[in-house]
Design brief:
59% helix; 3 helices; alpha+beta; elongated; 12% strand
Length: 80
């Protein structure tokens, strides 16, 4: 399998994952959704290490924000 190995921020999540650029059939809807969110298509993303880093950093930030919101909701639920 070819792809790019990405290390997730070790202070928040401790796993590694591979972005596999082959063996992945994308649809027009997936391409458009990716373009709408990130401003460029999957092909550009897969061929530019800097864009990969930008997207993965945004995903990491979204993950941390989601975990924070979930923790706040959990605290509020147990307070009542």
């Amino acid at each position: 399998m070819s792809g790019i190995l990405v290390k997730v921020n070790p202070t928040t999540r401790k796993e590694w994952f591979i972005i596999d650029s082959q063996g992945f059939e994308k649809t027009e809807k997936m391409e458009q959704a990716f373009r709408d969110v990130h401003g460029y298509g999957l092909s550009e993303y897969q061929n530019d290490p800097q864009k990969i880093l930008e997207v993965e950093q945004r995903r990491e930030q979204d993950y941390r924000q989601g975990q924070s919101v979930a923790a706040q909701i959990e605290r509020q639920a147990h307070r009542e």
